[in-house]
């Protein structure tokens, strides 16, 4: 794990930054604290679409995550150019997020920071984190299953 400005910074990115990425942010932060690595690793999240900027996370995601012990409290914001300089790892939830981030990246070096969340899945055979926005409670629960596993493996990969 290389660190720049003390902490290794991980940015989780989805479309709206109200469902998947703020949940990933909260879950990852929870595991980082559990591992006592909060002084070494910092988490953040953002969306490629700014239409929900300033909003709380989706209530359905807050409820589903809290049921598992994760408080999802991040206020939505759009990805900004500085993120590509500030962050060490930028984690895209799905292929569209990945492509959008690759286009937004200001340099070739910055593109090397972009990875897919699903690359950290081991037991679940799916190549992306599905958007639960138009799904029912089962969709949110499935997304949380995926995020918990991916966050654990991501943290292991950084240790
Ligand atoms: P997220 O979910 O990308 O996981 O935050 C979505 C939230 C809002 C919209 C789409 C996806 N939307 O189109 O407003």
List the helices and strands and how they pair.
Blueprint: E1 8-14, H1 20-34, E2 41-47, H2 59-67, H3 83-86, E3 89-92, H4 95-104, H5 108-111, E4 114-116, H6 137-158
Parallel strand pairs: 1-2, 1-3, 3-4
Helix pairs in contact: 1-6, 2-6
Bound molecules: 4-nitrophenyl phosphate (4NP).
Describe the 3D structure.
With 159 residues, the chain is of the alpha/beta class. The protein has one domain: 3-Layer(aba) Sandwich (Rossmann fold). 40% of the residues lie in helices and 13% in strands. The protein has helices at residues 20-34, 59-67, 83-86, 95-104, 108-111, 137-158; strands at residues 8-14, 41-47, 89-92, 114-116. Strands 2-1-3-4 form a 4-stranded parallel beta sheet. Helix 1 (20-34) crosses helix 6 (137-158) and helix 2 packs across helix 6 (137-158). It is globular and about 40 Å long. It binds 4-nitrophenyl phosphate (4NP).
Specify Rg, calculated over alpha carbons.
14 Å
Biggest sheet, strands in spatial order? 2-1-3-4
Q: What molecules are bound to this protein?
A: 4-nitrophenyl phosphate
- In whole angstroms, the N-to-C terminal distance is 6 Å
Summary tags:
alpha/beta; binds 4-nitrophenyl phosphate; 6 helices; 159 residues; globular
In short:
With 159 residues, this protein is of the alpha/beta class.
């Amino acid at each position: 794990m290389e660190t720049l400005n003390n902490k290794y910074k991980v940015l989780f990115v989805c479309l709206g930054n109200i469902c998947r990425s703020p949940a990933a942010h909260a879950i990852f932060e929870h595991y980082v604290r559990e591992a006592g690595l909060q002084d070494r690793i910092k988490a953040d999240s953002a969306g490629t679409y700014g239409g929900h900027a300033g909003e709380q996370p989706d209530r359905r995601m807050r409820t589903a995550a809290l049921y598992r012990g994760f408080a999802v409290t991040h206020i939505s914001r759009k990805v900004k150019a500085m993120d590509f300089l500030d962050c060490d790892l930028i984690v895209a939830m799905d292929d569209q997020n990945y492509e959008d981030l690759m286009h937004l990246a200001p340099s070739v070096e910055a593109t090397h920071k972009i990875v897919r969340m699903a690359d950290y899945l081991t037991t679940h055979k799916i190549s992306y984190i599905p958007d639960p926005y138009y799904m029912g409670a089962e969709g949110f629960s499935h997304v949380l299953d995926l995020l918990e596993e991916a966050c654990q493996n991501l943290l292991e990969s950084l240790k």
